[in-house]
Amino acid sequence: DGITEVLAHRSDSLRDKFVEIPCSEDYDSHKRFEGCTPRKCGRGVTDAVVTREEAERIRRIAERGLSLGGSDGGASILDLHSGALSLGKHFVNLYRYFGDKIQDIFTEEDFALYRDVRQRIQQRIAQVFGISSSSMYLTKPTFFSRMNSTEAKTTHDEYWHPHIDKVTYGSFDYTSLLYLSDYSEDFGGGRFVFMDADSNKTVEPRAGRVSFFTSGSENLHRVEKVQWGTRFAITISFTCDPEHGIGDPVLQ
């Protein structure tokens, strides 16, 4: 793996840490949106946008939703926007599958908190990259993930492969992760790794920590396999292309 540097330790409380890196050419093969498409690229970590207590409340939303399903393998997802929920080796639409029972699982307050946190993350990304937050749109997939050490049963469970968000999803311009549990306390392994040519840079999750980065191949990354315990996070993705924008989830 070469040299590994820790960009953010679990024990750090980071106001703002940002590392600028040259942009890749990935953005050139997509339509550019002036004032939004990255011209400044890099990666940041902050513990000052979401409180630990808010992260715990959001984790409970994820736990309640995922308790309705869950993958047979080590990685389960819950997407409140599309309703996608891991169930066994497949996905179901939470809203269709459970119908009116959804009202017993989630509350309006849950969705309001989710929306509020998403807006704060969006504003912080816009501020750091020097763009207007109104020129960014939430895009899919934006989802909760729950990872444990159960062995993979399908390719959906194999979350640890290196990938580039812009290449995988096309619409992504800025990616963020809000961690909902603590590295080395709630789970082992499962660190986030930026894979640079000369070394790896890792982010150790802690509840309330937001990691964000431009989505091109300047930020090739992977997640280590979780060795023990359970790791919760939410991936929140943004595009500059309004045609790929999605709305916030609403209680159906």
Give a quick summary of the entry.
This protein has 252 residues and is an alpha+beta fold.
Describe this protein's structure.
This protein has one domain: Jelly Rolls, CATH 2.60.120. The chain is built from 5 helices and 16 strands. It has helices spanning 52-66, 94-98, 102-105, 108-129, 165-169; strands at residues 3-8, 17-21, 41-46, 70-71, 75-78, 84-88, 90-93, 137-147, 174-179, 187-189, 192-195, 199-203, 210-214, 221-223, 226-229, 231-239. Helix 1 (52-66) packs across helix 4 (108-129). It is globular and about 45 Å long. The N and C termini lie far apart (46 Å). The model has no long low-confidence stretch (mean pLDDT 95). GO terms for molecular function: dioxygenase activity; iron ion binding; L-ascorbic acid binding; oxidoreductase activity, acting on paired donors, with incorporation or reduction of molecular oxygen. This is OGFD3 protein. Its cofactor is L-ascorbate.
CATH class: Mainly Beta
Annotated CATH topology = Jelly Rolls
Q: What is the domain tally?
A: 1
**Which class do the helix and strand fractions yield?**
alpha+beta
Spans where pLDDT lies below 50 across 5 or more residues: none
Main beta sheet? 7 strands, antiparallel
Principal-axes shape call: globular
CATH superfamily: q2cbj1_9rhob like domain
**Helix percentage range:** 10-25%
**Contiguous helical run count:** 5
The value of Rg in angstroms is 17 Å
